[in-house]
Amino acid sequence: MDNALSSLSDRLRTLSGESLPNRQTAHEFVRSILRRAILNGELAGGTRLVQAELAAVLEVSTTPVREALRDLATEGLINFDPHRGAVVQELSGEELHEIYEIRLLLEPLALRQAVPKITESLLEQLRRLHKKMLDEPHSAEWVDYNRIFHMAVIEAAASPRLAAIIRGLQDASVMYIGASLKHVPGLRDDANRDHAAILDALERRDPDAAIAAVSTHLTVAIRAFDQSAHLT
């Protein structure tokens, strides 16, 4: 068994120790466990994921493991290497900068379109998400709430093509956010304050303030990853 996976086997067993939720399939269960381990940094970039080994650790058949790995590959969390099989995506500072530079161009455009269309119902959804992020102790779940928060605002622009492009960039960001949260003290608190500033601007229907808050938020994320890269 791969050393990284071997050292994580007890942790995976702990995560999977509870009975399978009634409304969750084995496929969804495996995907959730692996996704959390990747985003929490417990499965590091470059870790080889062997279907049979994962199935044994998680006490499922190889079929849901295979399906889960395909889903994670679609999200960009793992790659399929011709020689090594499924491997956790390795992080690249160059890729991170490219992703965020494009987001810094496109998200202000989407916000300019979205702010006039913000509804009270959407604001209430964003407030609930912000509260969940303030209370959430786990990085993987926080990363999911963060993505939902940002995409809820982007989708208010009612520009499906622009939203699809930004969604792809958001999906490509998740591992970088997870790595930064693990290695940069105080980053989550900073991000939560940024979200409060974004929410405040949206409540005031102020597109310039919303764009400024999001741009600051994304710039901080770039610096945080650069800092985390030196700490790993």
Proportion of helical residues: over 70%
CA radius of gyration: 18 Å
The tally of helices reads 10
What is the CATH class designation of the largest domain? Mainly Alpha
Folded structure, characterized:
The chain is mainly α. The protein folds into two domains: 3-88, Orthogonal Bundle (Arc Repressor Mutant, subunit A), CATH 1.10.10.10; 93-231, Four Helix Bundle (Hemerythrin (Met), subunit A). Helix content is 73%, strand content 4%. A three-stranded antiparallel beta sheet has the order 1-3-2. Strand 2 (78-81) and strand 3 (85-88) form a beta hairpin. It is globular. The chain starts with a helix and ends with a helix. The model has no long low-confidence stretch (mean pLDDT 86).
Label this structure with key terms.
single chain; 232 residues; mainly alpha; Arc Repressor Mutant, subunit A; Four Helix Bundle (Hemerythrin (Met), subunit A); 2 domains; 3-stranded antiparallel β-sheet; 10 helices; 4% strand
Topology:
Layout: H1 3-15, H2 26-39, E1 48-49, H3 51-58, H4 62-75, E2 78-81, E3 85-88, H5 93-114, H6 120-135, H7 139-155, H8 160-183, H9 187-203, H10 207-231
Antiparallel strand pairs: 1-3, 2-3
Summarize the structure in short:
The protein has 232 residues and is mainly alpha-helical. The protein is built from ten helices and three strands, in the order H-H-E-H-H-E-E-H-H-H-H-H-H.
